[in-house]
Amino acid sequence: MAARGRPRGFDREAALARAMEVFWERGFDNASLGELTRAMGINSPSLYAAFGSKEALFQEAMAFYVKTAGSGIWEPVDSLTTARDAIAHVLYATARAFTCHDQSRGCMIVLASPQPRGSNPSISSELERHRRGNRDCLERRLRRAVDEGELPENTHCHAIATFYSTVQHGMSIQARDGASREELLGVADCAMSAWDSLTRPN
Amino acid sequence: MAARGRPRGFDREAALARAMEVFWERGFDNASLGELTRAMGINSPSLYAAFGSKEALFQEAMAFYVKTAGSGIWEPVDSLTTARDAIAHVLYATARAFTCHDQSRGCMIVLASPQPRGSNPSISSELERHRRGNRDCLERRLRRAVDEGELPENTHCHAIATFYSTVQHGMSIQARDGASREELLGVADCAMSAWDSLTRPN
DNA sequence: TAATTTATGTATTGATCAATACATAAATGA
DNA sequence: TCATTTATGTATTGATCAATACATAAATTA
């Protein structure tokens, strides 16, 4: 069945990628519709026809971010053979990802709308839900490692997952403050140096 | 010399404290003048007469935050007798400070304006300057510990300071996401468990 | 008391925001 | 060809923002 009506004059996914860039760099509130439409190369009626609203556009941009920039960091967590490798991968991949653009930008999920009572609470809570999901992903991986015998039974999986999640969040702030790749890799080194004492039977 | 003209009808510092609370919770952009004046109990002409502008009010609120909420965290760094005690104090005091209100709020310096190209770049850079100052404070304390013989000569003071600074920043995000005091204290525990391996002569 | 100075309350300003009205363009189906 | 459907461009809407104009109130100085 062919599409009825005048065909869309722009690439929807390319426009979404541009919108993601703007939201990533400027945050939700500071990304004005004028800036978005300029970056996307369309006018506001086209934006609203294709995406619905600024909030809906952000939600799609967030999903696009997770699928692209975020997948290289989080997807290998379950496939790597040890929890230690998985955690180390998250930290080192984060250090590289946060410093692969001209200007370091950190994580869109952490920085795009940090105030829970900001202008759009539903966006803030959606971002928070996603951050919590990442932490839970680490905690599940640690529990699996306990089940598999890699880690001792009394491992504090919740505390360790929260710790590494905290380090990963902090790297976003450091990246925004201009930290170099070497500095962020050094942060990952320091964080991983706690591994043995954190997972010691005792 | 007595003050000329009609005396101010409100307590300037109390109003500033109220403004700080609003900026702290809502961030610079989302804190509207209406919300600020309502919280401060004054009308906008009084605000502008007393503080100059929204930006100037924020700068004063930031200084007030540093002097009040921040001093308990950072002031003891130089007076504590070991670098280890100093770093531990920063982390544990942060965990307590970030969870002493009804709703966890994290650090105003980290969360009030996270986008460097936000609506007010001068505020973002001022906040960044302050974050960098805190990291430098840790690094200086570590270097002093090397000079005093507490830590070995080849200690990576810059990397260690960046690491603990990163953890402290990450705790702001966790606090905003509702982390409990126990969870943040656990993060501090995990971070401090890296101390021995980070400062081992090797 | 009269002149001066500073603060306050009410109302308003121009700018910017997200979102939309409306006419027109470009496709398909009959 | 002609009706229908969808997209686009121009222009505009009401809301909200930070900041201010202006008249009045409350103090000091002369």
Describe the structure.
Chain A has 202 residues and is mainly alpha-helical. In chain A, 67% of the residues lie in helices and 0% in strands. Chain A is built from eleven helices and no strands. In chain A, α1 crosses α4. The model of chain A has no long low-confidence stretch (mean pLDDT 95). The interface between A and B is large, with 48 and 47 residues. Chain A binds a DNA duplex (30 and 30 nucleotides) through residues 2-9, 32-34, 42-46, 48-50, 53-54.
Order of helices and strands of chain A: HHHHHHHHHHH
Shape of chain A: elongated
Structural class of chain A: mainly alpha
Largest sheet of chain A: none
Q: How many separate helices of chain A?
A: 11
- The residue fraction in helices of chain A comes out at 55-70%
The oligomeric state of the chains shown is homodimer
Q: Report the sheet-strand fraction of chain A.
A: under 5%
Mean pLDDT score of chain A: 95
Largest interchain contact: A-B, 48 and 47 residues
Output the radius of gyration of chain A: 19 Å
Query: What is the tally of beta strands of chain A?
Result: 0
Low-confidence stretches of chain A: none
**Cα end-to-end separation of chain A:** 66 Å
Question: Which secondary structure elements does this structure contain, and how are they paired or packed?
Answer:
The structure is a homodimer of 202-residue chains.
Chain A lengths: L11 H19 L2 H8 L3 H8 L2 H14 L3 H4 L8 H15 L10 H4 L9 H27 L9 H20 L4 H12 L2 H4 L4
Helix pairs in contact in A: 1-2, 1-4, 6-9, 6-10, 8-9, 9-10
Chain A binds a DNA duplex (30 and 30 nucleotides) through helix 3.
